[in-house]
Amino acid sequence: MPHCTRVRQVLKARGYRATPQRLLVLEVLETAGRHLSAEEVHAALQARQIARDARDAARRVERAEQPEAHDAAVDEDPRRRRPCPPDIGFMQIAHDRLPLGCRSEIPWGRIPAAGPRRPGVLAWTSASSRSSAPSPRPVPSPAPAASCTSRSRPSAAR
């Protein structure tokens, strides 16, 4: 509908922001070709939002699978970062940088990165789930950190 462009101009002139939600509503109204009830707009928005979320999630998973997307802090300053080696997974970075309640050290390279690194393959799929043949590259299991499970978290003082 041609009046939706005018609606955008009016919103901008009155100082309203063109939020993604408002732009989605205008997109539904533009593509409908007829007047829609509130229920029809809501149903169209639900269908578009679910499809958009799935595409965004797949794009983010593919981006996270790329080796240069992984990074770890060089020191305590979060502004200084370096690329993470490709054999390090998210769990290693989380263990090194998040307060998990333990003081154990897992050496770099002990936890392999999860999932295949081919574009278009989602992280939660693996070679073994796609075929009955065993995975060509076995993933070594990390050595257990004894202090991780043996220590309990300190209780907060009351």
Class from secondary-structure proportions? mainly alpha
Q: SSE order, as H and E?
A: HHHEEHHH
Q: What is the count of β-strands?
A: 2
Number of domains: 2
Strand order of the largest sheet: 1-2
Terminus-to-terminus distance: 63 Å
What is the beta-strand fraction? Answer: under 5%
Largest sheet: 2 strands, antiparallel
Instruction: Kindly report the average pLDDT value.
Output: 58
Overall shape: it is: flat
Q: Number of helical runs?
A: 6
Helix content: 40-55%
- Show unreliable segments: 68-74, 88-135, 146-152
Q: Explain this structure to me?
A:
The protein is mainly α and 158 residues long. The protein has helices at residues 3-13, 20-32, 38-65, 90-97, 127-130, 146-150, and strands at 71-73, 81-83. Strands 1-2 form a two-stranded antiparallel sheet. A hairpin with a 7-residue loop joins β1 and β2. Mean pLDDT is 58; it is low at 68-74, 88-135 and 146-152.
